[in-house]
Amino acid sequence: MSTTTVDTHCPYCALQCGMRLAPRAAPRAGHASAGASANAVAEAPAEAPADAVAEAPAEVVERPDFPVNRGALCGKGRTAPAVLSRAVRLTGPLVRDAASGELVPASWDEALDRTAAGLARTAEVHGRAAVGVFGGGGLTNEKAYLLGKFARAVLRTPSIDYNGRFCMSSAAAAHQRAFGLDRGLPFPLEDIPRSGCVILVGSNPAETMPPALRYFTELRENGGTLVVVDPRRTRTAEQADLHLRPRPGTDLALALGMLHLVVTEGRVDEAFVAGRTTGWPQARAAATAHWPELVERITGVPVPQLREAVRMFCDAPSSMVLTARGPEQQAKGTDTVGAWINLCLATGRAGRPYSGYGCLTGQGNGQGGREHGQKADQLPGYRRLDDPAARAHVAAVWGVDPGDLPGPGRSAYELLDSLGREVRALFLSGSNPVVSAPDAARVTGRIASLDFLAVADVVLSETAATADVVLPVAQWAEETGTMTNLEGRVVLRRRAVAPPPGVRTDLQVLNGLAARLGWEEGFPVDPEEAFEELRRASAGGPADYSGITYRRIAEEEGVFWPCPETGEASAPHPGTPRLFLDRFATPDGRARFVPVSHRPSAEEPDAEYPVFLTTGRVSAQYQSGAQTRRVDELNAAAPGPFVQLHPQLAEQIGVAEGDPVAVTSRRGRAVAPARISRDVRPDTVFMPFHWAGEGRANTLTNPALDPVSRMPEFKVCAVRLEPAARA
Ligand SMILES: Nc1nc2c(c(=O)[nH]1)N[C@H]1C(S)=C(S)[C@@H](COP(=O)(O)OP(=O)(O)OC[C@H]3O[C@@H](n4cnc5c(=O)[nH]c(N)nc54)[C@H](O)[C@@H]3O)O[C@H]1N2
Ligand SMILES: Nc1nc2c(c(=O)[nH]1)N[C@H]1C(S)=C(S)[C@@H](COP(=O)(O)OP(=O)(O)OC[C@H]3O[C@@H](n4cnc5c(=O)[nH]c(N)nc54)[C@H](O)[C@@H]3O)O[C@H]1N2
Ligand SMILES: [Mo]
C-alpha cells in the first residue's frame, strides 16, 4: 500500500465495504495522514478557492483485500467522496434568528450555549423526561455509546431512541426470543455459498447491497438453490431458482404453511428438536392450523410453489433463511420472523454449519448502533436497562449512582409522536425523520411543535432545516471510529482527510454540550479513548467488546463479537464468527420455539382504499436521500420518486408511463410519476422512500406498531390511486 492512501470503509450500508481513499493534493489544505489522530482539528484556510470547495477531497481506489466485498463497490460507495466536498454540506453552525425566523451563521460557542440552554431550560420547566434524544444506526460505536451516556448520565432522561427501531428491530426481538441473543447474522457472509439452499425473504440485495450479490451467485454456482420471497419481481428475484410472490404482509402465513408441510411430510428433525430446542408442541399445534390451501388463499402463493420451496429447503444438506425489511417492517414483524425461525428449528437448520436464520441488518452501524445504549431499553454491551446488575456495572463505569439512571423510554415512533407534548426539547443526531418516519406529515408537525430542536448533521437535511440550532459535524472519512457490520464484525473506519475548518466531530459536540451541563470529564473527543471506555462498559455483557482493540481490528480485518478480554496477552479471545454451534444463548442453551399465528395487516385494502402500498429502496439512493441526493451521478441514475404499478392497474385508473399518479391513504396524499411494470403484483404499488416533498412515500405509510418490537408497518398500507394533474 502506498503511504498516500488510507484503508477505510464506505459511509453507507451494513456491509461496510472496505475501500481505499487517495486524498487529493492541494489546493485543499489540512490532509491528514493515515495515523493522524481524529480529534486534531485540522488547519485549513478559511477561504478555499471555489474549485477546491466543489471538488471531493479524496478519490476511491480499489481495496481488493477486504474479505466482505473484495474490492467491489456499488455506485453509492464509488461516489461517496462527493459528499465530502464543501459545496454540498454544512460548513459552520447555524442558529435560528428570533427576528427573521431564518437560520443564520453563528459561532460554535453560541450554537453549543444555545443547545445546552435549550435542553436545560426544558428539563427545569417540564422535568428531565421532557428532554429527548434521537440517534442513528449510521453513527459509529463510539458515538452511539457516548450519545446514550449523554442521555442517561448527563440529561438523565429516559427519552432516547433511534432510527434503528425502524430498521431491524423486529428481527432483533425475534432473535432475543428464540436464541437469547441478537446478532443479525450468526455466521459470516462467506458461509452463504457453502449452504445448500437459501430462502431470502423480503430482501433485495441486488439494489440494497450489490457487492453482496456475489455470495448468492456463488451459492448457485456451487449447486445450491436460491428461493426469493418478494411481492415484486426484483433484480434479486430474477436470480432465484424459485420466486414466491405473496401479497404484502402475509409472510407469517407463508412460513406457517411451509412448517405445516414440514410436519405433514415427515420432515421434522426430531433429534434436533428434542436435543436443542424447547416449545415444539405448541409451535407445531399453531402451524398445523395453517393448511396449505388456507395459506394459498391468504398469501396468493399457489400450493405447488409452497411444496417446491419446502422440498428445496429440506432436501439440501444445509439451509438458511435470511430476512430483511420486507417481512420485518410489519406490525407483526416479530412474529413473522419468529415463524421463519420456527421453520429453521423444526428442520434442524440452526446452530449447525452453513445453516441457520439470519437478518440482513441495514444501516452502516445498524448492528453496533443497537448494542451500545441509544435504544430506549438498553445499556452498553447489549445490556438491559431494567436489569439491576447491568445498571450497577454501567453506572460504575460512568461514575454515577445506579439509582440515578433513568428507566426505559418510548420507542422511536412513540417518541416522535410525543414531541411538543410530553417531550418538548430534542437533540437529534444521525437521522432525517421528516422524510423517513411513518406518517411523516404528522411527525413533521410534531417536530415543528417542539420548544427546542438541535440537529447534528453533515448536511442541511429536511429535518435540520427546521431546527433551532444546526451543528455541522464531520463524517466517515474525516474521523476515525469503529462500525459493526451485519456479520457482527467490528471494523475500523479510519480518517483519511481533514474535515472543513468550521466543522466538529460528533464526539466534540457531545463533549462541548456535556461540559456546559456540568460534565467536564467523561466525554472523550479521541475515538480510541471512547472505545476503551466502551470496552469496559460492554465487558461481561451479551455484546462483549472487551477483547477488541483498534490495533487488533487493523491487524485482523475486523473482529467478531462476542470477544471478551482473556487477561492473557499471549492468548487473546479469537472473536466469534459463528454463534450457536454448541449451544444457544438461552439459560438452558436450547433455542425456544414461539407459537405464532397469522393475523391480517393493520390496514387491509377495502372499497375506499383498494390497493396495497409497499415501500423500499432503489440502488442509487440511500435512505432519506440526505447524502445521496447531493451526488450528481446518483441523481442522474435515480432522479426522483415514482409509483411502480402493474399495467392492469394503470389501465384501470387511466394512466400511462410517466403520468403523475396521486396516491392517497388515510394519512395523506403523494404524487409521483407512474412506472408501469409487470414486476409488481396487480393488487400492489411500490414507492421508494428516498425523497421529500410531493412524492414523499412516508406521507402515506401507517404508523401501526408491532407490539413487541415497536416497528412501524412501513411495508403495508391501503391506498387509492388516481391520475393527477401534470405540474
Ligand atoms: N441503495 C440502497 N441500499 C441500502 C439502503 C438504501 O436506502 N439504499 N438502505 C440500507 C438499509 S438501512 C436497509 S434497512 C437495507 C434494506 O434492504 P432491503 O430489505 O433489501 O430493502 P427494501 O427495499 O426496503 O425491502 C426489500 C424488499 O422487500 C419487499 N417487500 C415489500 N413488502 C413485502 C412483504 O410484505 N413481504 C416480503 N417478503 N417482501 C416485501 C420489497 O418489494 C423489496 O424488494 O438496505 C440498506 N442498503
Ligand atoms: N417508507 C419507508 N420508510 C422507511 C423505510 C422503508 O423501508 N420504507 N426504512 C426505514 C429504515 S430501515 C431506516 S434505517 C430509516 C432511515 O432513515 P433516516 O433515519 O432518515 O436515515 P438517513 O437518511 O440515513 O439519515 C441519516 C442522517 O444522518 C446524517 N449523517 C451521516 N453521517 C453522520 C454522522 O457521522 N453524524 C451525524 N450526526 N449525522 C450523520 C445524514 O446526513 C442524514 O441526514 O428509514 C426508515 N424509513
Ligand atoms: Mo434500515
TrEMBL record:
Gene3D superfamilies per record: 2.40.40.20, 3.40.50.740, ADC-like domains (2.20.25.90), Dimethylsulfoxide Reductase, domain 2 (3.40.228.10)
Annotated InterPro entries: Asp_de-COase-like_dom_sf (IPR009010), MoPterin_dinucl-bd_dom (IPR006657), Mopterin_OxRdtase (IPR006656), Mopterin_OxRdtase_4Fe-4S_dom (IPR006963), Prok_molybdopt-oxidoreductase (IPR050123)
Domain (4Fe-4S Mo/W bis-MGD-type): residue spans on this chain: 3-86
UniProt keyword terms in alphabetical order: 4Fe-4S, Iron, Iron-sulfur, Metal-binding
Pfam families named in the record: Molybdop_Fe4S4, Molybdopterin, Molydop_binding
Protein's name according to its UniProt entry: 4Fe-4S Mo/W bis-MGD-type domain-containing protein
